[in-house]
Amino acid sequence: MGNRLIECVPNISEGRDTNRIEAIVNAARTIEGCHVLGVEPDQDYNRTVITLAGEPEPVVKGAIALIERSVELLDMRNHTGEHPRLGVVDVCPFVPLRGVTMDECAQMARDVVAHVAESTGVPMFLYGAAATHPERELLSTLRKDQYEGLEARLSGSEHRHSEFTQYPDAGSKEWNDVAAKAGGITVGARPILVAYNVNVDERDATVSKKIGSLVRASGRLLKTPKGTSVRVNGMLPMVQGMGVTLEEMNISQVSMNLRDVELCPLHMAFKACESIAHDHDTRLLGSEIVGLVPLKAMLESGAYFDPNATDEDDLVAAAIEGLGLNEKHSFDPSQGIIEWAIKKELKV
Are 294 and 149 contained in the same domain? Predict the structure, then answer.
């Protein structure tokens, strides 16, 4: 393993069919030097988060192989799930870890988009540091109205997108059989993001939706007496959040993206949700990290829950306990912490 290291986190729109998930992941595994650090399917979301890591060239090749296999095996016309999504590979970000710049990761994203657009014709979008316009930087903006709204965007019917976000950057720019089957695929470059979900002891997501709208950075839109709207910012910086029901577990969940875990640490997100839940006479049932988390974030939360701990293992254990990461799920730090997973898998 050299001095250049990146992470790639494709999210595919399949979380129930284990055979298809395995076939898609195996497409990346066949690329020498592309290491699969994690595969996390979710039946309620009907989505699987896959974590790849290694030197840039094999990871890029692995991402292309995974996307092309997803296009072959998955069909958005048959997809339902709780999580927002635009296509068979809803998002595929490249993340610099060591010896690689963000600009280089952005170029990798552009190369993947160009290759997949040429090989499949699927509508391809660029986001994050690879975005071609400031309005295209946020995934949530490009994904507005999801797969169900893509036909209107590409056919010129009534839609909610601006002229800067309506069309893909490459691939088909009209609604056809390829777009109908695969939807739109979004590839980009971004810093480390932590996908973090907090479980709430309710079934219908009433409180979870309130929590999501209060903690997310974008906050709420409030109606004025004149019929216009004004936005009130939320509690947590650089956080996206929403409340959803988890039918399989008979609970609900506040699903969050912590876009800068230094500005909003895990424990801050957890305690904010806990406080609002208590105000609504309910309680949290632990939380989960989807994908991998930086060691620094776990150490910081460990120090919050156990100020007397100094050893890394003790701090991580305190974070796991304080955040309830094993209450409804199972968190293995050797696989869930980026640095430890890389050390274990890549021998670095």
Answer: no
